[in-house]
Amino acid sequence: MPLAIISGTHWGDEGKGKIVDFISQKANLVIRAQGGSNAGHTVVVDGKKYVFHLIPSGILHPSIKCILGDSMVIDPADLLQEIQFLRDNGWEESLQRLLISQKAHLVMPYHRLFDQLQESFRQSSRIGTTGRGIGPAYADKVARWGIRTVDLLNLDTFKEKLQLALNYKNAILKKVFQYPPLSFEEIYSQYQDYANQLKPYIINTLPVIHDALASHQNLIIEGAQGTMLDLDHGTYPYVTSSHPVAAGSLLGVGLGPISAIQSVGICKAYTSRVGEGPFPTECLDDIGKTLRERGGEYGSTTGRPRRCGWLDGVVLKYAVQTNSLTSLVITKLDVLGGFSKIYFCSHYRIGNQVTSELPINPFDWKIAQPVYQELEGWESDISKIQFYQDLPQTTRNYIEFIEDFIEIPIAIISVGQDRNSTIVRKEIF
Questions:
Q1: Of 232, 231, 214, 250, whose CA–CA distance to 324 is shortest?
Q2: 41 belongs to the catalytic site
Q3: Catalytic: which of 10, 13, 111, 115?
Q4: Taking all residues of the chain, what is their mean pLDDT, rounded to a whole number?
Q5: Which of 138, 259, 335, 427 has CA atoms 20 to 30 A from the CA of 378?
């Protein structure tokens, strides 16, 4: 019963979409575990770019079922836009394989509004959210104000829950933010329409998942965001509102600890992050700009330029431990071509102490300075190379240095955006 969990090792944007699409060639079922349309997973097939915010990245392979999992928060407008995009691009057939968990929560218009108002309220202490209502939707889930996709199957239930929640939200809007109330009639009418369009996809997905496991099919759980954005294990408070770590992915699809799990981490050959928060290896000079331009480091969800720097090995080793990684995938290795020297952060200097441990104290994060190992770079373009042994020796030295540092194998190397620009050293399935 092969099961692969795909997790980002840093602050998201590691290339999970491409890798899920690539290994989906041997999969039967792909499940998005958590998050919402704050994710932006990019897949390039035959030169055409597809960006999925909600739909699992395996959708472009025939016969693969794709599930939006229990712990997701789904904005119906965004989802229907993606569905229409697939139709417009000749993927109508794929929609017959798309399933939505009845347990997933809905992102409501007031969630987007509260996301923006709360960020504004923070002023200089802003988190740097995408503004898509993800945090407020999860907050309502925990506070038990949430509305789930199953409620779209019974509009009387939906109506009752919406009225209660909206009365509460409007009271806060008025008393805290001096903001005019939202219209019940407008929201209800809008979600009536969403319900009619989405009903065919909404089912109890747990039997589908367990049937696939029982019949020894290949399953992929596709995480969103990254380890350092995990609500518990990331750089709090500059985190997302869910659990992108591997254990969170299992919880997010309705599974507990089971055997035959492959925990696969996705890591760029360098490091990037979007939004506010600590980033010890960030390069504020021409190196950072070069990495951003070469790597196309602009958020696929927001369009915001990503902060870029050398690979942070302290974070990477932490991610190996936190996700119990069994193998690693390195993406965007081609971006480093042309650098005569490459730097790898092996430790932090915090005050007078050199440590390999990740800080927890926010003050320590602020003063943490990277301790670098210097490696030889390579001048050649590696984007067309298909076999590991054909990579320049210095490129292989970099890969093997990382491998020795984290003490797990590097299974796959990506040297370009396209599905075929991928070097396999160890099969996932």
A1: 250
A2: yes
A3: 13
A4: 94
A5: 427
